[in-house]
Batch of 2 targets.
Target 1
Amino acid sequence: MSTFTDSTGREWEIRLTAGDLKRIKRTAGVDLRDALKPGEGDFTAALDDPERFLELVWALCGREVNMPRDDFERLFDRDTTVAAVAAIWESVWDFFRGARAGPEARATLLAAVEKVENTTAEILHQAAARVKAGPTSSGSVNTSAESSASTTGLSPSPN
C-alpha cells in the first residue's frame, strides 16, 4: 500500500489488488502487468498523457472517492501528480515484485522514483526561469540543448 496527498491535504491510498488489474486495463487502457518491463508500455505512456493518467488514478482510487469525478480530477496539481506517480510506482512494485525482490530492490526503486521527482522539479524550475527571463534578442524563449536533453528518460527503470 502506498499513499499520496492531494492539493487539499487529503491522503489517498493506492493498494493494487489482483481484481484491479482487469478493471484498470478495461477502464484506463493500462496493463499494469507490463509496468516493470523495460521499454515504453501502457503505463509509461499513461504517465505522459494527463487524461490517461487521471483515468488510471481514478481506476485505482475510485472506490474510496466520495465526490464527482471532475472534482476529484481538479485535486491534481503538479505536486499531487508527482506524488501520485510515485505512489503508483511503489504499489506496482510491491504487488508484482515486492516479496520476491526484497527490501534492497524496493529501496532502489524508491530512490529511482525520488530521482525522477527531483529531475522533474528541476526541469520545471529551469523552464519557469527561462519564461520569466523573457524572450531572447531573436524573440524566442531561451532554450538550450542541455535542458532538452535532461528531459529524456524521466520514467524510472527499476531494473
Target 2
Amino acid sequence: MATVRDNATRVKRFRELKATLRTDRTRLLVGLDIAQAEHVVHLRHAHTRVVTPALTIPNTTRGFTQLWARIQQAQRATGCYEVVCGLEPTGTVPPGGGHLPGDAGRGRRAPL
C-alpha cells in the first residue's frame, strides 16, 4: 500500500508531472467529471489523441469496476501504462481548498 508522502516530495512530483503532462507519450490521461448519480469519463493520450470518447459510468462499485476495465483495455491497446487522473468535483471548493502550497494570497489555484 502506498504511504502518504511528505509535502516537499508531493510538491516536487506535482511540478515534474505538470512540466511533462502533455508531452510524455507514455501517459494515459483519465478525466473524470464527478456527479452524484453518474460520472463522465474521457481517456486520451498525453499528447491529445483521444483513446475513448466520453463515457458515462454510474456512481457505484460496478461503475468503477467497468471504468477500471476500460482503463486496462486502453493501456493494453496504447502501451501507455502510467495513468494520470484528473477530477472535476461537483459542488464548491471549501475556503482555502485547491490552492497550491506557498501561494497564499497570490490567487493561483491547483488544477483539479
